[in-house]
Specification:
With 117 residues, the chain is mainly α. Helices cover 71% and strands 0% of the residues. The chain has 2 domains: 1-62; 66-117, no CATH class. It is built from 7 helices and no strands.
Length: 117
Amino acid sequence: AVEGHRGRGRQAALALEKRVLELPATDRPIALAEAARLAVGGGGTEDAARMHTVLVQSYPDAAEAAEAALALARWHARTRAGVGTAVQLLEGLILKDPGSSVAPEARRELQRLKGVS
């Protein structure tokens, strides 16, 4: 995190990502979420997408998974080829936890994407 404050967010994110497996399993999702946030802030959107993918696939029941799925869907939706994947992620997010704090955003994003595809 210190590196992130020094303007080296991507490097800090990658360093944190490398250390995630050394953490207790219960701390890994929040560390991955923080690493992804640092990556985005440092211009590493592809790195963040990779981290979000790991979070969603490896820790689907973690509190951070819903936000990661939303961020990952938005990343995929940047290209026409990724819209289908984005729609699947959003539908899965909404079905899994319709009352989650990110569900309203996911519904809006899904409506927008269905108008695109």
